[in-house]
Amino acid sequence: MRIVSGIQPTGNLHLGNYLGAIRNWVRMQDEAQASGGESLYFLADLHAISQPHAPAQLAANTREMVAALLACGIDPAKSVLFNQAQVPQHAELQWLLSGTARMGWLNRMTQWKDKAGKNREGQSVALFTYPVLQAADVLLYQATHVPVGDDQKQHLELARDIAQKFNNDFASADKPVFTLPEPIIPPEAARIMSLRDGTAKMSKSDPSDMSRINLTDDADTIMAKVKKAKTDPEPLPGEKAGLEGRAEASNLVGIYAAMAGSSVEAVLGEFGGAGFGKFKPALGELLVTKLAPINRRFVALCTDQPALDAVLRAGATRARELAKPTLDATYAALGLLRG
Ligand code: TYM
Questions:
Q1: Tens of pLDDT, residues 139-156
Q2: The model scores a pTM over 0.85
Q3: Which of 58, 276, 301, 318 could form a disulfide with 67, with the two C-beta atoms 3.0–4.6 Å apart?
Q4: 16 C-alpha vs ligand 1 centroid, how far in Å?
Q5: For ligand 1, what atom is nearest to the CA of residue 201?
Q6: What pairs with residue 175 in β-bridges?
């Protein structure tokens, strides 16, 4: 079992990241250890330069994101935690895979289409080739499982396509260069939606901070955001089918279920018939209770910048070791001489 996943350090860790991915990272680091496997988690700082950014902000966000991941339970004694920029093999492998990835495949990526919008010509080349770097991130370590939210599923499918084509073109069937990674997407909370619009996903790039719960929000802010969350005038239904066509209600019930470790059915069993005047305070309380310990740890960790940098340095040293055999095999398979 080789678990690999990443997150862009472009802002705060929010509830979507936590429920969609990071919670699974924490669970899987223990599973990997128990089975004699390994887990690698990284800050995708190289991905973050695909869109306009302020350099000082990126450096600050990278440190802040390490603190957030540690606060959520990622343990450097159990997982390899690092940032891409300290492991040059990611960028190197991206180039080697660029000969295999097809323009047509990248053109079909919905994230590219969404982010580029009508202005494709004005986008950076990095935004277009972003999924090739993401493929390199996982293939470099022979990842078997990649815990992500639903929005990253297509990128993972592309990584599999690249791996398969490379193996077909440059390796023998009994000795493939790359392992095909499996995306691990949580059955519940795979797609947490904005608190202001139940049809848009909760995202760091939403200009309204009211649209998301950040893991750094204090109790008052969380309660205020939940109270102001968009809803409809109907009471909650007693059955799951009654949530159909009610995107905002469905999102809030889903968040409650994921946070409480229960199911949508069980939450509706408890709150069916109740209005949002009753449900929202209960959801706010639950979020505050569950997130307060993470928040406390986060604030404490942020005060020790040298310790955060040391975690990244140690993680990167180990990641470079783990990356070496696959990168060597890739150069060799392509017929590239290196002395
Ligand atoms: P990023 O930084 O946008 O998000 C990090 C993780 O959080 C999940 N996520 C969500 N899950 C549920 N609901 C939401 N509203 C929500 N928003 C975000 C994402 O699915 C992701 O798992 N390209 C990636 C980072 C990356 C990566 C990789 C991931 C780079 N290389 C290799 C896996 C493997 C990204 O921008 O995620």
A1: 999 999 999 999 999 999
A2: yes
A3: 301
A4: 9
A5: 15
A6: 172
